[in-house]
Design brief:
Rossmann fold; six-stranded parallel beta sheet; 15% strand; six-stranded mixed beta sheet; 12 strands; LacI/GalR-like_sensor
């Protein structure tokens, strides 16, 4: 066992906290600092000896699912930029791990722990939380961003998906649309909240979100293409469709074109966030959407991470919810 780990175990803090104390870093609470010095005294160790055996990494980890289009995906990129900028202000570097792939999230988190990152920010797409329990037990500070993980009470910074979905749907009603449909996955918490927001907006007008209005891709086990054909083949097809996942926009546009329909004259489309690739150039900055403050999310996640460093024990899990902004563009218009 390393000297750093011995001190951390005795002081009941993380190795990252011990590293900060011996390097005289300011982001440590007085109580944690005292515990570390007391543990070092009992083990007959001094700061210089500890520094020689271990230098603080001054590094935090960011784990998120990266795809080939990450550079054009404003939401994912803005989270990354927000984390990096705030960490750099604090003289920290960011180790980025790609969790895209089966069981990869758990492996990436484990590797970051092994590399002594001093905290981890995680955009989790994993329904299993075993690795999060391991992370909590290690004492390494962790903040979730965007997605909740069921059954885990961890610090979280996310967007207000429920209110955003209500605002989008209500905007379509304000344009005169009443036959509004939604196509969405439901596996993750963000989409569950968007579904609820859509349902609430309809119920406020006495409209039930039946299967002809709400197509859940995960529940129904169909593709985005099949879902759009199902909607457009209806005798009274919807005049507006809420595409909950912006990555599905290209498929929606392609199917609408096959039916020789025009956006927005024949059918309005709304979505969340922006995904500019692989959409044709004419559809960049085209879709009415809720824009989430992803860069601010990333920065606030870093701040929350360092708050945990200052209070390594006893800090209650916090959930910070940031509202999005309705961005009206060319894909919507009043019902003719």
């Amino acid at each position: 066992m390393s000297k750093l780990q011995e001190v951390a175990d005795l002081a009941r803090v993380s190795k990252a906290t011990v590293s900060r104390v011996i390097n005289n870093h300011e982001n440590v609470s007085a109580a944690a600092r005292q515990s570390v010095w007391e543990a070092m005294r009992k083990l007959n160790l001094n700061a210089n000896e500890m520094k020689r055996s271990h230098e603080g990494t001054m590094m935090i980890g960011l784990v998120l699912p990266l795809t080939s289009s990450i550079a054009a995906n404003s939401f994912g990129m803005d989270i990354l930029l927000g984390v990096e900028e705030k960490a750099f202000e604090k003289d920290y570097m960011v180790l980025v791990g790609n969790s895209s792939g089966p069981n990869k999230e758990k492996a990436v988190v484990s590797q970051m722990m092994a590399r002594d990152v001093e905290g981890i920010i995680l955009l989790s797409k994993n329904e299993s939380s075993d690795h999060l329990l391991q992370l909590k037990q290690s004492g390494i500070p962790c903040v979730l961003v965007d997605q909740r993980v069921e059954g885990e009470h961890l610090h979280l910074v996310r967007g207000d998906n429920l209110s955003g979905a209500m605002n989008l749907t209500n905007y379509l009603f304000s344009l005169g649309h009443s036959n509004i449909a939604m196509v969405t996955p439901s596996r993750f918490s963000t989409y569950k909240d968007r579904i609820r927001g859509f349902q609430i907006a309809l119920l406020e007008r006495g409209i039930e979100a039946g299967p002809e209005r709400l197509i859940d891709l995960d529940r129904d086990g169909i593709s985005m293409e099949q879902a759009m054909r199902k909607l457009l083949d209806q005798e009274h097809r919807p005049t507006a469709v809420f595409i909950a996942q912006a990555a599905d926009l290209l498929t929606a546009v392609q199917v609408i074109a096959e039916y020789r329909l025009q956006i927005p004259e024949d059918i309005n489309l709304v979505t969340f966030d922006d995904v500019y690739s692989p959409l044709p150039a004419e559809y960049v900055d085209y879709f009415t959407s809720i824009i989430q403050p992803a860069k601010i999310m990333g920065g606030m996640a870093v701040e929350l991470l360092f708050q945990q460093v200052k209070e390594p024990a006893g800090m209650q899990a916090q959930e910070i919810v940031l509202p999005g902004t309705l961005n009206i563009r060319k894909s919507t218009c009043p019902l003719a």
